[in-house]
Each structure stands twice: as C-alpha cells, then as structure tokens.
Amino acid sequence: MKFNTQLIHGGISSDVTTGAVSVPIYMASTFKQTKIGQAKYEYSRSGNPTREAVEKLIAQLENGDAGFAFASGSAAISTVFTLFSSGDHIIVGNDVYGGTFRLIDNVLKRMGLTFTVVDTRDLSAVQAAINDHTVAIYFETPTNPLLRITDINAITTIAKQHHLLSIVDNTFASPYIQKPLNLGADIVIHSASKYLGGHSDLIAGLVVTKTATISQKIGYLQNAIGAILAPQESWLLQRGIKTLGLRMQAHQNNAQSIFNYLKQRPEVAHIYYPGNPEHADYALAKQQMVGFGAMIAFELQPGYDAEAFVENLQLITLAESLGALESLIEIPAKMTHGAIPRAIRLENGIRDELIRLSVGVEDSSDLLADLTHAFDQII
Ligand SMILES: *Cc1c(COP(=O)(O)O)cnc(C)c1O
C-alpha cells in the first residue's frame, strides 16, 4: 500500500464485528476474560481497541515496529525519557520545543539525567559531546522556529557507532514529509496535536519504535506510567490522520505561494523556510524531505513593527500552536519561546521581531490579501 492509501486503510481501519468503516469508540475500562489471562484486552490502560487502531496506523505510517498513543506530545516525550536512569547523559538539539527544554531543565535534571545541548547540524560538535555516560541523541528537524534541518542519516550513523539511541521529534514534518526510522532513527515522537490531528481540536502524542526490543520497553513504560490517549481522542486522531495527505499537499502549496509573495515584499528582511534556495539547509531539506513543509518564519526590516503587523491580520489567526487547517501566526519571542531567557534566544538566532507562520489550507488568495492588508497598515 502506498502512503495515501495507508492513511485511510492502514492499521485497523474498520470494525470486524459490524463492518463499520470507522473503528468504534470503545468506552470500556475493563474487558471480560473467558478464562483467567485469556483475553485480547484486559484493562484499557494496558490496551484499548480504539487506541490500538491508531497505534497500529502510526506504526505503519512511520514504518516502525510498534506505535504508542499518549495523552499529549509532552506525555510521549516524558515517557520516552524514562528509558534512562540517573547518571545517563543525553545529547539534545539546541532548537527543540520549549516544553522539552522545560522538562529537561526543571524535571529530568532533578532526577539525575545529564544533558549537553548542541546544534545537531554540526556533526563534529555532536561527536565531541559524546562521553562514557552518553546513551542517546535527541533532536528535531525541521526546528522551531528557525526551521533548521539536521541530517538525520548522519546523526543516526554517529549514534550507531557509539551504541546510542537516536530519537527524533518529527512533529514539524509529519510522516508525509519524512520518516526518520527509514533514515536510521530508533524512536520517533509526535505531538499529534499538530499536523497529525490537524484540526486544532485535540491534544495527543505518539511514539513509534524501530525494533521489537525498544517496542517492548516503551510498551512497558506506557502501561507503567499510564499517560495514555483516551478512546474518544484516539478515534478523533485516527479520523484526523486520514486526511493528512490531502492537508499536507494543500498546506505545502499555500506555503510556497506565501514564500513567493513574502520574497517580493520590501518590508521583509529575511525568510526562514526550508524551500528557500537561500536557506542554509536547502539542499539537505530537498534530499531528506518530500516537500518543504508549511512553516515559514520571517523578519521585517528595521523600523517595521512586527507586533502591529500580526495584530493587523484578520484571517490569519494570532495564536500559538501549528499544523492546523487555519493559518496561525505568532511572535516566538513574546509567545511560544517567551520562557527562554532573551540572551539565549538571541544566541540561538531568535530575534525579538521574528514572526512564525503556520500556513493553513485556506484559499491562498485570501491569505495573500490578508497579508497585503496588514503590510499596508504598517507602512
Ligand atoms: C507541540 C509540540 C510538542 C508538545 O506536544 P503537546 O501535544 O503540546 O504536549 C512537542 N514537540 C513539538 C515539536 C511540538 O511542536
């Protein structure tokens, strides 16, 4: 089955008992056992048919051994980090999700894990960060908000040489655009609250594992910790995933149109978009991804007020989050990345006036008209 067919028919896509073409929402906490220990499902924390359907589906979409659904992306990330023990050292990409840094700095360090933060585009810096206690490399690509691209294959090759796990947060790309497990990663994580859910109506997280050994460990932790996705949410997520292909095509087409438009605007000083031939990582993005995604960040020329610009938009919604049908815009320094100290933000290249746009699937002419209107008002 090809990818767009898998989205609809992959995993468990229908109900064997009734023939319903959509998997029912099994609202049950426990299941009858015909004999002690003889039951397909025992208790819904350990396994639920609706959750299992979406877990099987994501495993297939990411070409992994098994999938696991969690109550949020953050729950998925937290559970994966419990693979490690006090004293273990993990290398982390310098541009990962703010909530991941919060978890690392305020929770995981307290439990004795140690971390080195590096720019994972710099392979020698990654090599140099490895020590005797290193157990894993954790990164995102494309990153947020500057859409930097890490060479997944190069990093997983280094990880294998040193017997480290490689873990990729694939939220910004989705499996439509890139499949890290095919490029050597051991574990893929998603905030399914973004492109996979796709409709701004769901908080969910997913983990996909490459080998049965890791699947067994994550399955154990999922049940032990219990931060599982509930049946209603599992159903909603599977429904969202069915249209991932259609949505990603529309998202990417619109992103390309908006990039072409922004390039012409004299008020725009710099555009961060992997499909920008002037983007530092353009060649790698072209090689590693199918399309360039639909996230664009840009800076206005000095003297233009970025906050006034985003507040002047009428259709494009001023909000955090991304990967939704509706276009969402924000100022990372004031919103998603506001918790990072300014000096560190600036060091990472996130300027105060940087604007991040998650391009939705509206008619592109309406989006361009909205941008034009907002530009006209700041002149
Ligand atoms: C949103 C996000 C998360 C956190 O996911 P939640 O579902 O909000 O808990 C993790 N990683 C990335 C890249 C994200 O964008």
From TrEMBL:
What family is this?
A: Belongs to the trans-sulfuration enzymes family.
Originating species: Leuconostoc fallax
Q: Name one GO cellular component term.
A: cytoplasm
> Example GO biological process term?
cysteine biosynthetic process via cystathionine
User: What highest taxon heads this organism's lineage?
Assistant: Bacteria
Protein name per Swiss-Prot or TrEMBL:
Cystathionine gamma-synthase
Q: Does the keyword Transport apply?
A: no
Q: Which UniProt keywords are given for this protein, alphabetically ordered?
A: Pyridoxal phosphate
Q: Which residues carry this modification: N6-(pyridoxal phosphate)lysine?
A: K194
Q: Name one Pfam family in it.
A: Cys_Met_Meta_PP
Required co-factor? pyridoxal 5'-phosphate
The molecular function terms in GO held by this entry are: cystathionine gamma-lyase activity; cystathionine gamma-synthase activity; pyridoxal phosphate binding
